[in-house]
Design brief:
The complex is a heterodimer of chains A (242) and B (255). Chain A has 242 residues and is mainly α. Chain A contains eleven helices and no strands. In chain A, α2 packs across α5. The longest helix of chain A has 35 residues. Chain B is of the alpha/beta class. Chain B has a six-stranded mixed β-sheet, with helices on both faces. Chain B is globular and about 65 Å long. The chains are: A mainly alpha (242), B alpha/beta (255).
Chain lengths: 242, 255
């Protein structure tokens, strides 16, 4: 019994007999955060520049692309998981890398899931910056790059919201990580590809509601903390950035 | 030395159309462009500010025609002309950062990064030009305020200081006081005079004829699609030669 279990064990009748290893719980949290944070980080590096380019250039098919991005926000995660699984399976194009039931495959599917919301919300944020502000940056002698940087800065709260939305989707999603990750925990009780969401599903089905509820509470707490950080960023207008 | 629009035609099919229009401003001179709303004063200013290429005709800065140049060469020209808009459109940052913007974009990338880092640890001193420009509009004590906390009049005064801080040769003002109370209007008008005294050539688009009379050395009356009357302020207001200009100045409806 670790510190978490001991603390909870003292908490109330539900946890009188705390029946699980704290190592099991912490390794699940670690896998969840590891996969979601890396997927969202990579997605942000791709999405934000994409949104800026799409937002500030005119080309054929722009409307179509915007529609695809917005549709992608609601794309069913099980289908994404299925497609990624087919890609990384031994017969698939990425079969040689042996990625089935690995964290890397989970990062791939979460990247696919997080990119549409991050791109879509960033796009809305940067195109929502007042045109007069753009004109002002240009009139003051800014180059196209200066104007773009100014817009990113003006839209920083919206962009932070976009990244948060992507993270929220990634960490609370169950379908694709279950398919590509396989919900695997080792015999030693350490999670390999088991996330908070897939663990909740498993524990609830096994009737271990106390553990499932604990994992659920941790998941909600994580999402709340991230939200709080973003709201705080918004309140201070980006803190040291200005 | 002058900023010139020569025979410009622009905006066919759009809302504001200009045809074969010429206007020029010399250093230290204040030119007011007056005319009814929607006549294309803003379009004219945007052409002078090199925002858009005229469909026909030329815009030149001190004799260099802007649109025959490469983008890079034109940037150098564009940076000598500033424009302040009807809406203050300040950036979401402190007053000082807003006013320093024009200076900042003219610095090397290396210098800008250095400034940002020094700024983060609070070791950066503010350029004098920022404080100077803000004192001209009476806001020298408000440098650290958040731009979002300013009143409309203060915001417009900061926008003016922002256009002035990097010391442009020419400054274009689009209805700079249309939403302001008399006191803020007076501050801006005094600042326009001070800018002209520093040798800046100023073009003010305004629908306020009294303002034009107060601040302008020369007045151009824009009615229809071109300047129909221009000259020293007194002669345009006291004895306009064009019939439509006379009616407009007398406060009658003109088309």
């Amino acid at each position: 019994m670790g510190a978490v279990a001991a603390a909870l064990g003292a908490g109330g009748p539900l946890f009188v007999d705390f029946p699980f290893e704290s190592q099991y719980v912490t390794s699940i949290i670690y896998v969840s955060l590891y996969v979601s944070v890396i997927a969202v980080a990579i997605s942000t590096l791709v999405s934000v520049p994409t949104a800026i380019v799409v937002g500030f250039s005119d080309f054929r098919g722009k409307h179509f692309l915007t529609t695809v991005i917005n549709t992608g926000m609601g794309f069913p995660s099980v289908v994404v998981g299925l497609v990624v699984l087919v890609m990384v399976s031994h017969e698939g194009p990425l079969g040689e890398f042996d990625l089935v039931f690995t964290k890397k495959a989970m990062i791939m599917s979460q990247f696919v899931l997080a990119t549409p919301p991050i791109t879509g919300i960033t796009l809305a944020a940067v195109t929502g910056v007042n045109e007069e502000v753009r004109d002002a940056a240009f009139a003051l002698g800014g180059t196209r790059t200066d104007v773009a940087l100014t817009i990113v800065k003006e839209a920083r709260y919206g962009i932070a919201t976009a990244v948060l939305a992507g993270f929220g989707r990634a960490i609370s999603e169950v379908g694709s990580v279950l398919i590509v990750g396989g919900n695997i925990a080792g015999a030693n009780g350490v999670s390999r590809t088991r996330t908070l969401t897939t663990a909740i599903r498993l524990e609830a089905r096994s009737g271990r509601y106390d553990l499932a509820l604990l994992l659920g509470a941790i998941l909600v707490a994580l999402v709340l903390v991230v939200n709080a950080i973003v709201i705080r960023l918004g309140d201070t207008g980006g803190g040291g950035l200005r | 030395m002058s900023l010139d629009a020569v025979g410009v035609t622009h905006g066919y099919g759009g809302e504001a159309t200009l045809r074969d229009l010429s206007l020029s401003v010399s250093p230290g001179e204040v030119v007011a462009v007056i005319g009814p709303s929607g006549v294309g004063k803003t379009t004219l200013l945007r052409l002078l500010a090199l925002f858009a290429r005229p469909d026909d005709g030329a815009v030149s800065v001190d004799g260099t025609s802007a649109w025959s140049l490469s983008d890079r060469e034109r940037l150098a020209l564009r940076r000598r002309v500033g424009m302040v808009f009807q809406q203050a459109s300040l950036f979401e940052a402190s007053v000082a950062r807003n006013v320093e913007y024009g200076l900042r974009v003219r610095r090397s990338l290396r210098r800008r990064l250095r400034d940002e880092l020094l700024g983060l640890v609070g070791r950066r001193t503010r350029p004098d030009a920022v404080t100077d420009a803000l004192s001209l509009v009476g806001l020298a004590d408000d440098t650290d305020r958040d731009a979002a906390s300013l009143s409309g009049g203060e915001a417009q005064r900061v926008a003016f200081a922002r256009g002035l801080a990097y010391d442009p040769d020419y400054l274009l003002l689009d209805e700079p006081t249309s939403d302001l109370d008399p006191r803020n209007t007076a501050v801006i008008e005094d600042a326009v005079g001070a800018a002209a005294d520093r040798g800046i050539g100023v073009v003010v688009a305004t629908h306020d004829m009294h303002q034009a009379e107060r601040i302008a050395d020369r007045v151009a009356v824009l009615i229809g699609d071109s300047v129909i009357e221009s000259g020293p302020a007194e002669s345009v207001f006291d004895a306009p030669s064009d019939e439509r200009a006379r009616k407009f100045i007398a406060g009658e409806l003109v088309y």
